Amino acid sequence: xxxxxxxxxxxxxxxxxxxxxxxxxxxxxxxxxxxxxxxxxxxxxxxxxxxxxxxxxxxxxxxxxxxxxxxxxxxxxxxxxxxxxxxxxxxxxxxxxxxxxxxxxxxxxxxxxxxxxxxxxxxxxxx
Length: 127
What we know:
- The chain is of the alpha+beta class.
- It is built from two helices and four strands, in the order H-H-E-E-E-E.
- It has helices at residues 7-58, 67-74; strands spanning 83-89, 97-103, 109-114, 119-123.
- Strand 2 and strand 3 (109-114) form a beta hairpin.
- It is rod-shaped, with a radius of gyration of 23 Å.
């Protein structure tokens, strides 16, 4: 007599695999989002280092409106896969800057680093 799986046994296996996938998928997407955020923080630290080097030679920080300006003016290699980057000076304090990484897509989130290395997070465009 031939042994084989019944339709009921196969259906149970498919249901179990589906339940496991439903449990694992949210955790997987959270880990992907965390990895993207960690990459943006690393890029912001690279921008800060580039600004510090620029400041050492020019006694001022430089503003960069977008990623291509950051790459060319600061010599930092960034990609805009998940976040967009910009560097702004502070008109009230001449020896300061803030670099911002803004998440592409919704929900809008930003990560900000200043000249001292302080990191702040915003959600919905409000600090």
